[in-house]
Design a protein that fits this description.
By secondary structure, the protein is of the alpha+beta class. About 50% of the residues lie in helices and about 10% in strands. The protein is globular, with a radius of gyration of 26 Å.
Length: about 675
């Protein structure tokens, strides 16, 4: 018989609807039951693309004996971390405080009023590998709850006090917005840069797009004359090349996996997340602007094609994630044996194998997955000239043939059992997707990307925006959960990018409205910065302020950038004031934990950059040559304002045009002569 999760819309929660565990969704019903029955709460948090979440579910939550212990001793709550990032962040802080590490599945034991007293991540079904078995944990904690209650409650009070103290802790002072501060941050990135394989630190390696974006903006801005080796730009470009030629990148279908388990970007953790891919699209587009290397354009276009093909909902938004597992095996959908190539490609198998690094014995070993022995993750490390000579094909003909074989093998892979799809839609991540497609349309001049961006903005407006408020998640025709700081910030930044592409004031005006709503609902009136949850939202044991980047930009970092854009376009000094206020809260931490503040370092670069605006006035068709020139250049903090009627912004005053198109470029309150050709515009931008 299905449990209470059967009434939920989250795909992750629905995966547990048939467990013998008496799961509750997060809500008052669960807490009331815990209080009435004097039971502690077992909180389990995960997400649908999490491999070890599936493992623990199969080993423990589907096991009748384990479920019986859970039901007898605890009130059990299951949470989708993507649906409730506020809950996830609060209790992940508890896990990290108690264990020194974090991750998912997250398992937290807490009092009926939500105070944690014991926590961990994955627990095996029996003792082993230095971890206690889950049934033993359940028995021990039940015994402590019944016989050592005072000690447990004292521990819970102490942990909660620690969490509140940590959330309130701030380094109030003056933000250090100087080229020297940014340079010191880059020096710290340099110290952990992998000069062989790119990326930062040791395995496992994550893409960390916010850090890459900071380094690019530094290279083009305050660090232009840095002179140190490797340069910020070199670190980014080397990282991007190695990521896209390794197994981290889907060589057949496009798109990036969550992270690499090794330093070479060879073996990925195979789930594909929307947030990784849309952020990386922008980094590759920016690398293309800087270098004009078609490699970076190709990776961006292939990833965009993957997103449109496999992640785009008919209603206009993007799905959340694709699972790592299919047929119960992580990565099975993506890996190949040499025999499979022979079966499907015949004589062409040798060429395909040479190009993509496929060997008869397999090109990787994963001790956690011996069932994948002999299989290959496709890579693109091979030298095309060597392969061209080996197979007697001119390089252009070789590239064409490889593309034909890729298409054929992608069709073969499409016949396999696919990994699971988490098809809920999140406002925050769709805001990131909106920014990616809008910027792709502007940089690449491809109208199809603008169409996708327009549809995404329409989805957010029609499905996620009600009575002046955003909702966080959408599934099965229903928008749920009050919007959080990241929803307002990411959606606002996406709308700014769409305005830069279209010039339609409705997008920029909505971005301003989202910013103003965030000021009212999320800003700390007693301190500084922004809370993750609104003043009118649900009260958890701690109200956190997100400053630290995770896989996505921190809410405060993204809001600082949105404040700067709103201030720039609407000529509001408040924009810089808000950004400086946010930076003042963490200025002492940004150098000590530099890799966690890439978004806020971008805000520093924004503040350091000259104030530049480019108004392109005229009808859309006439503007195209001038807009192409702008799109070809990496100018991350240039306020681009296309307009047909020169109304709606202070920037537009006196800048109408009778015919054709005119570009007006201004820097630090001084404007250059209007120009009408791309060549003249290029001269002003150089």
């Amino acid at each position: 018989m299905p449990n209470r999760l059967a009434n939920e819309t989250s795909p992750y929660l629905l995966q547990h609807a048939d467990n013998p565990v008496d799961w509750f969704p997060w809500g008052e019903d669960a807490f009331a039951k815990a209080r009435a029955e004097d039971k502690p709460i077992l909180l389990s948090v995960g997400y649908s693309a999490c491999h070890w979440c599936h493992v623990m579910a199969h080993e423990s939550f589907e096991d009748a004996a384990t479920a019986a212990l859970m039901n007898r001793y605890f009130v059990n709550i299951k949470v989708d971390r993507e649906e409730r990032p506020d809950i996830d962040n609060v209790y992940m802080a508890a896990v990290q405080a108690l264990t020194g590490q974090g991750g998912w599945p997250m398992t937290v034991f807490m009092t009926p009023d939500g105070q944690p007293f014991y926590a961990g991540t994955y627990f095996p079904p029996a003792d082993g590998h230095g971890r206690p078995g889950f049934p033993r944990v359940l028995e021990v904690l039940h015994e402590k709850w019944t016989s050592e209650r005072d000690t447990v409650l004292q521990s819970a009070d102490g942990i909660t006090a620690h969490l509140k103290q940590a959330a309130a802790r701030a380094a109030a002072g003056k933000a250090e917005v100087t080229p020297e501060a940014a340079q010191r941050a880059v020096e710290l990135f340099r110290e952990v840069f992998d000069s062989t394989w790119g990326g930062f630190g040791m395995a496992p390696k994550f893409p960390s797009p916010s850090n890459l974006e900071f380094l690019l903006s530094y290279a083009a801005g305050s660090g232009r004359d840095d002179g140190a080796e490797p340069t910020a730009l070199e670190m980014v470009l080397q990282t991007l090349r190695h990521m896209a030629t390794g197994g981290m990148y889907d060589q057949l279908g496009g798109g990036f996996a969550r992270y690499s388990v090794d330093e070479r970007w060879l073996v990925p953790h195979f789930e594909k997340m929307l947030y990784d891919n849309v952020q990386l699209v922008r980094v590759y587009l920016h690398a293309f602007q800087i270098t004009r290397d078609p490699f970076f354009e190709r990776i961006a276009r292939e990833t965009l094609a993957y997103l449109e093909r496999e992640m785009l909902d008919p209603e206009g938004g993007f799905y959340t994630a694709q699972d790592a597992d299919s047929e119960g095996i992580e990565g099975k959908y993506f890996v190949w044996t040499r025999a499979e190539l022979d079966e499907h490609l015949g004589d062409d198998a040798a060429l395909f194998a040479a190009w993509f690094g496929v060997t008869p014995g397999g090109n990787f070993q994963d001790p956690h997955h011996p069932e994948l022995t002999g299989r290959n993750v496709l890579t693109n490390w091979q030298d095309p000239e060597v392969i061209a000579e080996r197979f007697g094909l001119p390089p252009p003909q070789l590239a064409e043939r490889v593309q034909e074989l890729r298409t054929k093998m992608l069709a073969v892979r499409d016949q396999r059992i696919r990994p699971g799809l988490d098809d809920k839609l999140l406002t925050s991540w769709n805001g990131l997707a909106l920014a990616a497609f809008a910027e792709a349309g502007r940089i690449l001049g491809d109208a199809s990307y603008r169409d996708v961006a327009d549809r995404t903005a329409q989805f957010l407006r029609e499905k996620m925006w009600r009575r002046g408020r955003l909702f966080h998640t959408y599934k099965a025709g229903s928008a749920r959960v009050d919007g959080m700081l990241e929803d307002y910030a990411y959606a606002g930044l996406g709308l700014v990018e769409l305005f830069k592409l279209s010039g339609e004031m409705e997008h920029l005006d909505w971005a301003r409205e989202l910013f103003e709503t965030a000021l009212r609902e999320f800003r700390d009136r007693d301190g500084a910065g922004f809370f993750e949850t609104s003043a009118s939202g649900e009260t958890l044991i701690v109200r956190q302020k997100p400053f630290f980047d995770a896989a996505t930009p921190s809410g405060n970092g993204a809001m600082a950038l949105l404040a700067l854009w709103v201030g720039r376009y609407y000529n509001r000094a408040e924009g810089e004031e808000v950004a400086l206020e946010v930076l003042s809260q963490v200025h002492d931490h940004m150098l000590r934990a530099h890799t966690g503040f890439g978004t806020l370092w971008q805000a520093v670069e924004f503040l350091l950059a000259p104030r530049r605006e480019a108004v392109i006035a005229g009808e859309p068709a006439a503007r195209q040559p001038l807009e192409r020139e702008l799109g070809s250049r990496y100018l991350p903090f240039l306020a681009i304002a296309p307009t047909a009627d020169a109304t709606g912004l202070p920037l537009f005053e006196g800048r109408d045009v009778d015919e054709g198109a005119v570009a007006y470029v201004c820097e630090d309150m001084a404007c250059q002569m209007p120009v009408t050709t791309a060549e003249a515009l290029a001269a002003q931008l150089d």
